[in-house]
Design goal:
Order of helices and strands: EHHHHHHHEHEEHHHHHHHH
Oligomer: single chain
Keywords: Membrane, Transmembrane, Transmembrane helix
Number of helices: 16
Shape: globular
CATH architecture of the largest domain: Up-down Bundle
CATH class of the largest domain: Mainly Alpha
Pfam families: MFS_1 (PF07690)
Strand content: under 5%
Number of strands: 4
Number of domains: 2
Protein name: Monocarboxylate transporter 12-B
CATH superfamily of the largest domain: MFS general substrate transporter like domains
GO molecular function, one term: monocarboxylic acid transmembrane transporter activity
Structural class: mainly alpha
Largest sheet: 2 strands, antiparallel
């Protein structure tokens, strides 16, 4: 019996650090001046919308429309990333943000870039990149207040647009991971029989994922269809060009956007669940300043202080919770479930408070819990697909948010205007998180049983051997 031969080969792997930390810094810089603006919508546009006669529902419609445009850019960004590079898409998004567009391009490309550089420290890297958003949410409320008081609404918008140009410098730090791959030596077992078989049939291409009626047909190393099989057997290699061309176009579109991901019920469950959590968080960010000013009777300075407290706690959470997750090997989906329960409790208690001290404390608790949802949402999506599918998977996740946010935002705004109660509106936002838990918890229990059954089966095999 032949003994398998062992060879040492060099393998290229992501650096899990190195230039990846510069990519993280660039993404953080871009987030400071771009992504953080989403939470400032009410503070910046609140008085202007009221002057135009719009209520909470009107503000929700405007914000939801902007979020739909942002999230709709996700799948497009994913397709462009596959055709070009993450750097090109990120720079294009940063340039477009000055004109009010491009946030979707930055979200998709920056996460895909970080995901390609990191494996073991992925949660930590994504958390550090999102710290930029937290820093922006801490500082920008005071800058917006100062600009509104001294330059008015139009002047503030123009100056904030110029500040967003700083994001271009951050996105330029993104480089292809192929430039920084690390060489690792590994031992590979060589089976001589397989080598001989491969040498004998080196002109035959085997593609087990594409079959016709359970049989894959090949000719000269190329796959042919069932209609072409009879022609090939008769020595005729001509094919109907129009049909083949139409099929190739649809096939390219199908593969470009990785639509096969939507065939998985679990993937659909994941993207809808993350969309519900983000919708709930974004709508709470919309009404939070209104709640502080109209229910708790806080002035703009006190409102900005509460929003800064949320942002500071958010930064702390993004720095500490990913370390906790990596240390105890907790899956991203489980972290989102735990923090969603945290958010439901904190927000429901906050809805009944009017004291400034208590509001500051609850703002900190809310920001701490919110941070993990923001960090883990794209990681939860990427954990359930191949590396080459990550751009499309994140894009489809953003598209699901774009489809859910506008109707949900309009409905939540209508609840606030119809009932006249912020408590009812916040409770409705928490109901979205409860719906999310109903969708995810049974699936996580099923995964736990599947892993337990698989471990038991592997243990039985080892005992028998």
């Amino acid at each position: 019996m032949a003994v398998p031969r062992v060879e040492k080969r060099l393998k290229l792997v992501p650096p899990d650090g190195g230039w990846g930390w510069m990519v993280v810094a660039g993404a953080a810089l871009s987030n400071i001046f771009n992504q953080s603006m989403l939470s400032l919508f009410s503070l910046l546009y609140g008085d202007a919308l009221e002057a135009m006669g719009h209520n909470t529902k009107g503000a929700a419609v405007v914000l939801s429309t902007m979020l739909f445009t942002t999230n709709f850019g996700g799948p497009i960004a994913g397709a462009i990333v596959k055709l070009t590079s993450t750097r090109f898409v990120a720079v294009l998004g940063a340039c477009s943000c000055t004109l009010g567009l491009g946030l979707g391009f930055i979200q998709n490309s920056s996460f895909v870039a970080i995901n390609s550089y990191f494996k073991l420290r992925k949660s930590r890297a994504v958390g550090l990149a999102n710290v930029g958003t937290g820093i922006g949410q801490t500082v920008m409320p005071h800058i917006v207040r100062y600009l509104l008081e001294n330059y008015g609404f139009r002047g503030a918008c123009m100056l904030l647009g110029s500040l967003s140009l700083h994001g271009i410098g951050g996105t330029l730090l993104i480089q292809p991971v192929a430039w920084h791959m690390k060489k690792v030596e590994e031992e590979v077992i060589i089976d001589e029989k397989i080598n001989l078989l491969e040498e004998k049939h080196k002109n035959i291409v085997i593609d087990k994922d594409h079959k016709i009626n359970g049989e894959a047909i090949y000719q000269n190393g190329s796959r042919i269809s069932s209609n072409e099989k009879g022609l090939a057997m008769n020595g005729n290699n001509s094919t109907p060009k129009t049909t083949q061309q139409h099929k190739s176009i649809f096939r390219k579109i199908y593969e470009l956007f990785d639509m096969s991901l939507l065939l998985s019920p679990r993937f659909i469950n994941i993207i809808i669940g993350t969309a519900l959590t983000v919708t709930s968080i974004q709508n709470f960010s919309l009404i939070f300043p209104f709640f502080l000013q109209k229910v708790a009777s806080l002035d703009k300075q006190q409102t900005a202080n509460c929003m800064s407290a949320v942002a500071i706690a958010d930064i702390i959470g993004r720095l500490t919770l990913p370390v906790f997750q990596d240390k105890y090997r907790i899956k991203a989906r489980m972290m989102i479930i735990m923090t969603s329960v945290w958010l439901i409790v904190v927000r429901q208690v906050l809805a009944y408070q009017t004291d400034l001290g208590v509001l500051l404390l609850l703002s900190c608790l809310y920001g701490f819990g919110r941070s993990m949802v923001i960090v883990a949402r794209n990681i939860a999506i990427s954990e359930n697909c191949r590396m080459d599918q990550v751009p499309a998977a994140v894009g489809l996740g953003m598209l699901s948010m774009g489809m859910i946010v506008p109707p949900a935002g309009y409905f939540l705004g209508w609840i606030r205007d119809y009932t006249g109660s912020f408590i009812v509106c916040i409770s409705a936002q928490n109901a979205l998180l409860v719906m999310f838990l109903i969708m995810w918890v049974p699936d996580m229990i099923l995964i736990w049983f599947e892993e337990r059954r698989r471990k038991k089966k592997n243990g039985d095999v080892l005992e028998m051997s």
